[in-house]
Amino acid sequence: MGTGVTRSMTRAIYDFIWRHEPATKNEIAAALGISLPTVSKYLTYFAREGLIDVGSKLSSGARGGRIPIGYVCRDNGRFAIGLDVTAERTRCVVLNVRGEVLANRRTPRAYSRDDDYFRFLGEEVAAVVAESGIEERRILGVAIGVPGLIDEASGVLYFGRVIDNLGLSIADFGRYIPYSSRLVHDSEAAGFAEFWERPTDTNAYYISLGKSVGGSFHQRAASHRGERGLTSEVGHMRIHPQGRLCYCGRYGCMDPYCNSRVLAASGDGSVGLFFERLRSGESAAVRAWDDYTSDLAIVIHNVRVMFGSRIILGGDVGAKCGPDLEPLWRKVDDLSFLPSDSRSFLRACTVTEYPIALGSALHVVDQFRNDPDRFALPRSRTRGA
Ligand SMILES: [Zn+2]
Questions:
Q1: Which of 3, 64, 202, 366 shows a CA-CA span of 20 to 30 A to 144?
Q2: Among 150, 149, 143, which residue's Cα sits nearest to residue 177?
Q3: 248 alpha carbon to ligand 1 midpoint, in Å?
């Protein structure tokens, strides 16, 4: 941080420019109640950090007077990396501060709990950085989306059965990654990507209907994570006592009824093929969707009465089910104790391409947006930025 530049003012000015670009010195000074020389000092600091550009010269000034300069946040001022780790492949993306994807890499590789695998993750990050051609010193950090529950205080996974990651932390996953790194719960990351796309939503509950079921709850003002990150584990909501065995070891959880494999079983292993068969009216697929939506409706009803928020269906199923929600809407409305129009609050996701890697990286971008000073460039190397 430069001399005389405070963190709170850095954040306030950067945020103002972000929301009002192109923003002039006068506008910044008036909005934040600070002097023009102070604004200039911060703009100099931002320019040195490579965080802003001179945008268009505004022609709204009086004729013959000085034309005010509008400042904009630099798209490629900083970069974030998101990594999605699953049982059978990794996905790695590079974003700029606007959340635009600059590089995107998918690599088939079976997860294994060993040093070779963690070394592979480091190589994947290096590869995606090289593909993107970005300056390394502008990398804010890496967020790795993993299935499992992460204790926020210790950063250790204390529930990890989808892949064998119980007891691991960023010290393991990030061992060969030379940037600031952290773990993110995969369902939270995917929900965050969806929420990011809809800045007008005040809150949303995201249900990830993938090979396992997860969830996350998002609020514009603050995220709700619960104790030790235990919130929205909707996959283990009990809907059929003495029902099917869940991977968690208990019976009757929602997961074995609503994970995407249930539908894929009627599509030769493919969720996409299942929906094709459903739409062509194949009776086995129609029956499977009827059972599936009956179980899912229970969970959606429960979530709705608890959170009263919008509900978004994600994961493999959410990415495909948009045109087929009619029976689900009807069943959810039938369960409601109030007059209900679930079309107004229940929808399929719109972020269907690699939402976990994307949402993980967006977490890093969001952290930067809320506090740009946390990611000041290394002092000795800022010259010539
Ligand atoms: Zn369970």
A1: 202
A2: 143
A3: 4
